[in-house]
Structure to design on (352 residues):
């Protein structure tokens, strides 16, 4: 028997035993993806607001809030994943999903909870509120509202049509195979008294009778007005060479926005050009105000207000505000996950 035939038969026997040699073709292909630098299948991509807005408005005209999740939601699917047979992979990056959601006047998106973390960043409209763990939180443009893992949340609109972005880590939880979801048992979440809410308990002035361990472990709402004021106050400082005047929405106890997601808002001043760098966390951006250009691995992505784009991990990137107005970029990143695993790496580009 030839050597090749012998190996083939041996491989077949190993397969029956559910083992595989590192000499097999599959393993060779696997090894080819190992290199000094990480590989990602995620592609840089930009979604125009005009397209997203038109699509979500059209859905609003033809569909009610039916379906299990009772949410009118449009996923931003990375072009690398859009033909995937695996629905769970059809997300914005391999770790994160960004969606656009529309809630029309009079509508209620019923409460549920899940172990994937999520947030809303309000883009357009007013008069709606989200109830998170019984806490009624008004939604105004530019506000960031968190629904950390396992918090009950439902949305109500008593005003004009409202559109927001949702950011979620469910692709990560899918790949860890730990995902859970459940509907709220009962009609509607009862609203808590203000004194039981997080806002008066996790600010910079806190009730003295509450032990740190009894305090809520997170802040739920970050107002645009305050974030904007902070950005303006810092606008004459140098800022980050790579991101301009960049803020992270932090947990009041310290650390990132949530255990798996970091949210940020950055201001690029008129004419500002940032230096190039790369890191092994991925990010999804939304141009909240203004216009500019982001260079990703040498490719130009021109953005205007409302556009969303992805910067895949380990790609060289820098930003430019070519206009005379300030530009504001909101972003979400999976950096907390990479850091928690002690894998985070960052490199400045040449000349940076
Ligand atoms: C979800 O529960 C919401 O609660 C929004 O508003 C978007 C996308 C995928 C899975 C669950 C929400 C979602 C979602």
């Amino acid at each position: 028997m030839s050597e090749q035939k012998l190996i083939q038969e041996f491989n077949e026997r190993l397969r029956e035993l559910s083992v595989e040699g590192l000499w097999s073709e599959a393993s060779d292909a696997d090894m080819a993806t190992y290199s000094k630098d990480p590989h990602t299948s995620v592609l840089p991509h930009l979604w125009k607001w005009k397209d997203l807005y038109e699509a979500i408005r059209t859905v609003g005209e033809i569909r009610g809030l039916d379906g299990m999740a009772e949410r009118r939601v449009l996923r931003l699917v990375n072009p690398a994943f859009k033909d995937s047979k695996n629905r769970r992979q059809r997300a914005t990056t391999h770790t994160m999903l960004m969606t656009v959601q529309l809630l029309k006047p009079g509508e209620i998106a019923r409460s549920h909870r899940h172990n994937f973390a999520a947030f809303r960043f309000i883009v357009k409209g007013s008069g709606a509120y989200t109830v998170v763990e019984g806490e009624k939180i008004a939604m105004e443009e530019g506000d960031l509202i968190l629904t950390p893992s396992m918090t009950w949340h439902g949305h109500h609109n008593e005003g004009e049509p409202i559109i927001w972005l949702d950011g979620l880590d469910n692709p990560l939880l899918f790949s860890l195979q730990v995902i859970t979801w459940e509907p709220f048992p009962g009609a509607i979440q009862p609203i808590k008294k203000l004194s039981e809410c997080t806002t008066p308990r996790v600010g910079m002035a806190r009730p003295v009778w509450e032990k740190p361990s009894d305090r809520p472990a997170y802040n739920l709402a970050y107002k645009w007005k305050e974030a904007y004021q902070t950005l303006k106050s810092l606008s004459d400082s140098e800022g980050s060479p790579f991101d301009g005047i960049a803020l992270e929405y932090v947990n009041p106890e310290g650390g990132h926005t949530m255990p798996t997601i970091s949210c940020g808002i950055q201001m690029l001043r008129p004419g500002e050009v940032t230096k190039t760098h790369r890191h092994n966390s991925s990010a999804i951006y939304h141009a909240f105000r203004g216009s500019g250009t982001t260079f990703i691995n040498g490719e130009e992505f021109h953005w205007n207000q409302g556009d969303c784009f992805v910067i895949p991990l380990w790609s060289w990137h820098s930003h430019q505000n070519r206009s005379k107005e300030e530009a504001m970029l909101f972003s979400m990143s999976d950096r907390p996950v990479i850091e928690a695993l002690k894998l985070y790496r960052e490199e400045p580009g040449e000349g940076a």
